[in-house]
Amino acid sequence: MVEIPKIEQRGSVRQLILDGKPFLILGGELGNSTASHLPDLDRAYEKLAAMNLNTVLVPVCWDLFEPEEGKFDFTLVEGAILGARKHGLRLVLLWFGTWKNSMSCYAPSWVKRDSERFARVLTTDGTPQEIISPSSREVLEADKRAYLALMTWLAEFDGKTQTVLMMQIENEIGMIPEARDHSTASAALWDAPTSEMGDLGRQLEQLKLSDDGRDVRETPEAEEVFTAWQFATFVEEIAAAGKEIYPLPTFVNAALIRPGFKPGQYPSGGPLPHLLEVWQQFAPSLDFLAPDIYFPNFVDWAERYNRSGNAVFIPEMAPSARMSANALHAIAALGSMGTCPFAIEDLKDEKAEDLGQLYCALKNMFPLVVEGWAKGTIVGMTPRLDFDWNLQAEAESVELGGIVFTAKFDRAAVGGDNSITALPTHGNGRWEAPLGTPLGGVMILQLGDEEFVALGKGTVLTFAPAEGEHRIGIESCQAGSYADGLLVGARWLNGDQTHQGRHIHLYDGAWTTQRFRLYRY
Predict the structure, then answer these.
(1) What is the dihedral of CA 463, 465, 470, 474, to 10 degrees?
(2) Is it true that domain 6-374 has CATH number 3.40.50.300?
């Protein structure tokens, strides 16, 4: 009997389970248009397989899938799946339906052109937006019919092979340029007394400040909760119906917030950290909620999704010089089931080699990672940066096995551009690392009482006892790589290579593995 992929608690983390075992997504997300042309997609697959990816996130676009109402075209999705099988890859499908990056640009033309049937979002002054209203029952039914057609076909075509692991419903859902929709139907829902709103009313009432006499719905925060409810209930109906046909894991992703921005100035109402529990309440058929992280403060954002039983997964992240270190940290420190740099097929040689090298090491060490998750014997450290690329501390520390490991990070000689104005942006965020930014990080796994293995680069590790007055020394250290659970190609390190037994140095420029035994004296 074929077991459908699922999200399950294993040890201390929630993981993607495939064929009864945890599966780590060593992934990347395609640029939006690559999958619309199968020869381009095949060339991308070939490159990504060579980079040691095992999973690719591929859009399925409503406008190409249902160009005429009721007529579904499976050509592109079938080609995407067959191509993935040819190259030994798995897929996560991204349903670009009613909303993509807040807008309704992937809705079919027969939806876009009929704003009477498919109502638009209106701003306060009545100006229509390039966004379909979440209160439009017509668009919900049309979106759901298309999604269910996809899931019905997918269950038949891929149910036994399971090339497709998960489904993302919509993309970076959110309301802008105001915090809520002012169309007639949405306004009628908003104007109802909170006492008649059920769970939504109770959510709104919780926002009321005891020392503020205003009605709670005069605040943009309340408007955003209302919008989150609209989006979540819309997606829930689609997700629940889809799972009745083919219960693959499903999720929704979020576009994040620049510092100081208020509801309406960013895609409001999406599955953002401060709305996580609202989405969990109103869209219970979703397996988890996920952030798209393009800002430098990756660690802070990823940590905010590691709560309330939410499985950690990064479906989009900046393809910056720090992407590999961020990926390793999410997996080691947060138990992420995977990470996916965006526009992965366009990575230049140096970045592609760096990510491929890390993914190769993680693939070969994954049995150890699974054991670490199960036993709580895995930690990760990488520099904590703020939104403006400022280093928050010169060192990071964590305890494992009664030993405090402290990591200091080399300041890399390579990175992005020193000119802030020249740095590439996504969502108005500068995502490329300026020159001199530390590009490294480290994962540490405990193998025994005093034995550890570290995967990292650009990192110097020192040690101290968590308790007592002993000191910690290095008994032995080997550098090599893992294959079939064993360290191979190992050479012994000592002397200058361990600073005469005082530290473990994972040098900048390449991801390396060192296994070492410590002792107390």
Answers:
(1) -30
(2) no
